[in-house]
């Protein structure tokens, strides 16, 4: 692995690489989405499709040239004794929201993050059906959202130059909570009830995949409580988006930022906030 001081990382080139990789992976996913796919069950009882595998292969090949190791949901997970010494690490979910993909509700994403030690410093999140591309890096420029023009080809320079900075201007709206479409539980419901006592009439948005954190990053929602299991690849890319856009992603117990490349790649319960 190549170890460079953080200030020498070429964020612009890495963002371009990741935007291209996310788009290409998204097109692989859309092929299966539109023509059909096979479903397997992994050891943790979560679903796996050939779209997940195809997207992983596209992204892994694209990231090879960076000489930075990759931790992907669909790849081999290196032992922590090796990973713990990595200064930089790609953390990837080739198809985040496989359940939503299977349901055909358009709420799934491609997630690519670069982590420096335990902190996400670059994130790209792409929702192929909606053509929504989010990206951000610790280069002082901020976080952005771009709607792609078509599915057939991509001009990365054009995507970047025409992107809108997030969060968008504050809109006159109710206090807004975003929650998981597939993992609403009693703990989350109780947390939301307490928010109603504090803020009165609130709006609740239910979404799948990392689109929930993107809602916070773009300023369309104020808080996202997650009191159900997730893994590092579910949150790393969108965590970067949230933080760089001025929000925060914190451990629900300690109120400290989530960390990555841990021995246990499961996340603790967490809260994502805008206000």
In summary, what is this structure?
With 275 residues, the chain is α+β, with helices and mostly antiparallel strands. It is 33% helix and 26% strand.
Give an overview in words.
The chain is an alpha+beta fold. It has two domains: 6-166, Fructose-1,6-Bisphosphatase, Chain A, domain 1, CATH 3.30.540.10; 176-273, D-Maltodextrin-Binding Protein, domain 2, CATH 3.40.190.80. The chain has eight helices and 14 strands. A seven-stranded mixed sheet has the order 3-4-5-6-7-8-9, sandwiched between helices. Strands 12-14-13 form a three-stranded antiparallel sheet, with helices on both faces. Helix 6 (186-199) links the parallel strand 10 and strand 11 (203-207).
Largest sheet: 7 strands, mixed
Taking the alpha carbons of the first and last residues, their distance comes to 38 Å
Structural class: alpha+beta
Number of domains: 2
Report the portion of residues in β strands: 25-35%
CATH arch. level architecture of the largest domain? 2-Layer Sandwich
Please identify the oligomeric state. single chain
Q: Cα-atom Rg, whole angstroms?
A: 18 Å
- Poorly predicted runs are 1-5
State the shape: globular
Strand order of the largest sheet: 3-4-5-6-7-8-9
The CATH H-level homologous superfamily of the largest domain: Fructose-1,6-Bisphosphatase, subunit A, domain 1
Assigned CATH class of the largest domain: Alpha Beta
Q: Output the number of helix runs.
A: 8
Determine the CATH topology of the largest domain: Fructose-1,6-Bisphosphatase, Chain A, domain 1
Mean pLDDT: 93
- Percent range for helical residues? 25-40%
What is the H/E string? HEEHEHEHEEEEHEEHEHEHEE
Number of strands: 14
């Amino acid at each position: 692995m190549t170890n460079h001081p953080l200030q020498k990382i070429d964020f612009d080139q890495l963002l371009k690489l990741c935007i291209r990789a996310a788009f290409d992976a998204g097109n692989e996913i859309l092929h299966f989405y539109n023509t059909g796919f096979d479903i397997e069950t992994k050891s943790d009882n979560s679903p796996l499709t050939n779209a997940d595998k195809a997207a992983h292969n596209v992204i892994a090949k694209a990231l090879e040239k960076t000489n930075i190791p990759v931790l992907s949901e669909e790849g081999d997970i290196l032992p922590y004794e090796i990973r713990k010494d990595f200064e930089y690490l790609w953390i990837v979910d080739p198809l985040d929201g496989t359940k939503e993909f299977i349901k055909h509700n358009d709420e799934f994403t491609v997630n690519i993050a670069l982590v420096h030690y335990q902190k996400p410093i670059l994130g790209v999140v792409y929702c192929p059906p909606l053509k929504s591309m989010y990206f951000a890096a610790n280069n002082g420029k901020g976080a952005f959202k771009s709607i792609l023009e078509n599915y057939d080809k991509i001009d990365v320079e054009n995507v970047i130059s025409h992107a809108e900075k997030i969060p968008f201007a504050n809109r006159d709206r109710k206090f807004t909570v975003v929650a998981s479409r597939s993992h609403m539980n009693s703990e989350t419901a109780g947390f939301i009830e307490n928010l109603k006592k504090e803020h009165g009439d609130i709006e609740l948005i239910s979404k799948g995949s990392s689109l929930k954190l993107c809602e916070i990053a773009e300023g369309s929602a104020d808080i996202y409580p997650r009191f159900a299991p997730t893994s590092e690849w579910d949150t790393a890319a969108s965590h970067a988006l949230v933080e760089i856009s001025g929000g925060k992603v914190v451990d629900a117990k300690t109120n400290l930022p989530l960390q990555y490349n841990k021995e246990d790649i499961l996340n603790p319960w967490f809260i994502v906030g805008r206000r």
